[in-house]
Amino acid sequence: MIYIYPTDTAYALGCDGRDGQAIKKIFEIKGRQESKTLPLIAADIEMVRDWCELSEKAEELAEKYWPGPLTLVVPIKKQGLSKSVMQDNQTAIRVPNSEEARNLSKHIGAPICSTSANKSGNENCYSIDEVRASLGDGIKLVDEIIDKGALEKKEASTIVKIEGGKVAVLRKGAIIV
Fold this sequence. Notes:
Blueprint: E1 3-6, E2 11-16, H1 20-30, E3 40-41, H2 45-51, H3 56-65, E4 70-75, E5 90-94, H4 99-108, E6 112-116, H5 128-135, E7 144-145, E8 158-163, E9 166-171
Parallel strand pairs: 1-7, 3-5, 4-8
Antiparallel strand pairs: 1-2, 2-6, 3-6, 4-5, 8-9
């Protein structure tokens, strides 16, 4: 199943992070290179701890900023996720400040891949009309749309990686770490 759903930053396109076939369709819908990995969204910090290894510093950041627009690049500890959501046995994951996104992950029972609901290279979409315009015929491959109306325009999530106990900012975004 492929979903379009609201997050705390924009509308997203996603599916079960374990479903390689659905993830392939997401790359097709977006016109995105399959060499680029997709980030994940989890229902809560417990789900993240179940699937990923969180260092002491990662735990500290998660406790401070989740739910919210902070993505952590962390090692994977549990098998089963699609190779399209990992690189060098690491993944980018966050718990968003969006009840709809968290509930979708909870319903699926695993982290969901989460990428902006637009054609690769296009601006983020803040309404379903914008998503339809950006994706064109690709929208026909989507199984379910969760429409929350127009979303407030916000910055993308900040992406960080902890290396040797130090925080490296990979993408500046909504949170200053």
